[in-house]
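Project channel, design review

CF: Before we commit to the Nocardioides lianchengensis constructs, I'd like one complete example in the thread so the newer folks can see what an input/output pair looks like. Taking Taurine transport system substrate-binding protein.
RD: sounds good, go ahead.
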Amino acid sequence: MTRRTTGAAMLATAALALTLSGCVESADERKASDAESKAAETDCPWTPDESVTTTARIAWQAIPNGDAVVKDRGVLEACLPNAKITWVQAASGGDVITYYGAGEVDLGLMGSAPAARSSSEPVVRDVDIATIWIHDVIGDAESLIVKDAAVTDLAGLKGGTIATPFSSTAHYSLLQALADAGLDPAKDVTVINLDPDKMPAAWLGDEIDAAWVWDPVQSQLLEEGGTRLISSSDTAAAGRPTFDVGTVDRAFAAENEDFLTTWAKAQDWAVQLIQDSPAEAAESVAVVLGIDPAAAEAQFAGLEFHGAAEQAGPDFLGGKFADDLLTTAQFLLEQGEIEAVGDAAQYAEHVDAGPATRAAE
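CF: and here is what came back for Taurine transport system substrate-binding protein:
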């Protein structure tokens, strides 16, 4: 009993820290002075481009990938010293879509499911974005964590409550898994919309029986005694892979090609750092996520990373990714998440391999 209470207290403290850090970051990241001070501590890995004077607002999420490295190191600010760059925190891809719709951001990290929604009716009427980067292919980094170790399959959750952030890749993977198991998310289980930073408290308060979520919250729930039941690796093996992607407002992209080239070069540099020096990259991820560097490095294993040259090729932005968006949209239509699915050309129109291609040159 003492051990569980201590663990619960630790998790509650971690949850509070996550919530508070999210509030502080959201306010601070809106200040250009923060970006400038970070850039002053960083050397650009290549010759800086002083000709770019773009003002860019970038939505980021607390996910252990290259975007966190770029943000922490101030690479964009160092390589584009005359640009004005603001980082805006988002809790999920749904938030990023909302920010785009309100005209509050120009670029943003979201999952492939939100990207598919953004390219489909009705969202496409209000948001015009393109996927220009694949931050990672999601594996065990997103999983369904259950409280009761006696639950060994999805059927064991019948009648239970499952939390996930709606309009996210985790939500998409959960719906897929339930459908494949023959469970109706509207009748057999209760699926609730919950931001990751709210999940630890709901878990401790016995308000939920399971959660499909990403790190660092996933690791917190596992440490508290949760069990991984199924992950995005399993849904990918079933033919529905998910990704964390970099997106851009298409009007912004048309006017800021040089900015996006440097942005993609910075992301490519971060991918190489993760692949070649994961411990060094983990130091930056740890700062952004508010976790231990060792934990940050361990979380890399749940994701798959690819450089610019590979991303620009036929397996990703240069071809297959548009098909993956279409497949995702078809499933979302079946679940009533969108109103209609466009043709293949519509989804290809919302994928742009240009920045990755230029970054690889």
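RD: helpful, thanks. The two ends are 59 Å apart (CA to CA).
CF: Residues 1-33 have pLDDT under 50 and may be disordered.
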